[in-house]
Design goal:
The complex is a heterodimer.
Chain A: E1 4-5, E2 11-14, E3 19-25, E4 30-38, E5 45-50, E6 54-58, E7 61-66, E8 71-76, E9 85-93, E10 100-101, E11 105-110
Chain B: E1 4-7, E2 10-13, E3 19-25, E4 31-37, E5 44-50, E6 53-56, E7 64-67, E8 73-78, E9 87-94, E10 105-106, E11 110-114
Parallel strand pairs in B: 2-11
Antiparallel strand pairs in B: 1-3, 3-8, 4-5, 4-9, 5-6, 7-8, 9-10, 9-11
The chains are: A mainly beta, B mainly beta.
Chain lengths: 111, 115
Amino acid sequence: QKEVEQNSGPLSVPEGAIASLNCTYSDRVSQSFFWYRQYSGKSPELIMSIYSNGDKEDGRFTAQLNKASQYVSLLIRDSQPSDSATYLCAASSGGSYIPTFGRGTSLIVHP
Amino acid sequence: DAMVIQNPRYQVTQFGKPVTLSCSQTLNHNVMYWYQQKSSQAPKLLFHYYDKDFNNEADTPDNFQSRRPNTSFCFLDIRSPGLGDAAMYLCATSRDTGGRIYEQFFGPGTRLTVL
């Protein structure tokens, strides 16, 4: 059974710090990885996709993928209180349009 | 702006009273999904359509039905809602963005309350 594991948190960081969110996956043939941000009571919003080993940067967000170790991470630099949300990690195998979601990590950025 | 729209945003129903939730999209995506999400849980896939092909997850209760009359619209029918069906219902869409990669885009969700 495909699984995506995330620490539920909450992860608490001070404003301006780097928040590091981690995710591991069990399906070795997973090729596409997604990070979603979900504010309380709202729907998930896609913030990053990554498909190749290494880092991918978009503004304050950096996604990191290590397929050999089967983990994906999301770094948020200069964290802001508005980044406080649950971050969902999802993975899908090549050609699959059905991702497997993790339960999410709650991030709290305090002033 | 291209988007995924869900109506209503909030739905209150009585135990056993049927409800229909709707989803429409202007993204022209060929894949549409219905998810159920409860507090602090991952979204749970109920159904999906690949073009006109309907796929029902094995553990989706028979109480849940879906229709996709055309590319843009999709409906979720809950025939006899129980208290356990209270949740956020999320519609999502995707398409092959190249290299057989599908990025999902979610609508705002419908919060269902069952009294």
